[in-house]
Amino acid sequence: MSSLPVPPDAAPHRISVVVPVYQGERTLPGLLAEIEAWSAPFETSDGHRAVVSEVLLVHDHGPDGSEDVIRKLAATSHVVRPVWLSRNYGQHAATLAGMASAGGDWIVTMDEDGQHDPASIGDLLDVAMRERASLVYARPTNPPPHGALRNAASRGAKRLTDALTGGRQSRDFQSYRLVLGELGRSVAAYAGSGVYLDVALGWVVGDVATCPVVLRTEDRPSGYRLRTLLSHFWRMVLTSGTRGLRFVSVLGVVFGVLGVLLALFVVVSSLTGGDTPEGWSSTVVAVLLTSGAVLFSLGIVAEYVGVAVNMAMGRPSYLIVSDPADGPLGRGGRGR
């Protein structure tokens, strides 16, 4: 689909860039310098006028000195808007907080570690306009710079999620994305606690497209550990629908059928004079299999109940506060 002609006097597309910050002490200054190059009106390859109108740095209470860097960048840059969270909520919640605070026509989300090239922002916009898409994911043309094992695990997790949810959309999920501003702000306003951001976007967006980009080497080691990655994967499964609960039902049917077949085998074996299983081994195996299936099923159901309880209690996905340095906690004393 070709894009519509661009009027010569059309107002530029205002783009808000959201960067969740956890360990950005070393990488933020360089990343902001690259983004600021697009803070003056520019023209994309397809002739669309655009401008990065603001950069929202969302402080997610990491272990380094990112908060001081954010304050310095806000004091020296006309596009930086700090967003302060009350505590660490995780990357997806921090991204939602930034999207809720954004005011642009479009919202671009990107990581703090330097692997996302801001020069691709114009390409993302061109794809959105060309394909009339309200959400565009960056599609890496080179392997992500995480190592072969993590890349393989990521691909496997996405395929498994698609199998459980009956879709194919998770294969396109990327933290480098462009979304219509009004849709991004709406999702950030209603998304419940623990929701997987890309799943929430999939509930409301229309056409989704991808844009080829080249990922750069990270300027620092990844802050994600195995436990964090597994948590992301599990949250993506839980918030993708109720197919997990259907899997529990299917599992119960499968073990019920196996139980009936085992009973028939014992009866037939007895009638034909065969050796009837009489040892403890078969009994123990059957008990372990069935009890394991029951406990596994109860665990899945409990996870879904936990998600529902958190939402029913009104647990927020994030809480935006003022700069702690400007409040009572920032007042020095003799011991400081």
Automatic annotation (TrEMBL):
EC number(s) reported in the record: 2.4.-.-
Signal sequence residues: none
Domain Glycosyltransferase 2-like: 16-154
Keyword RNA-binding among record annotations: no
Transmembrane segments: 245-268, 280-305
Record GO terms (molecular function): glycosyltransferase activity
Enzyme class: transferase
Family, per entry: Belongs to the glycosyltransferase 2 family.
Protein name: Glycosyltransferase
Organism: Cellulomonas wangsupingiae
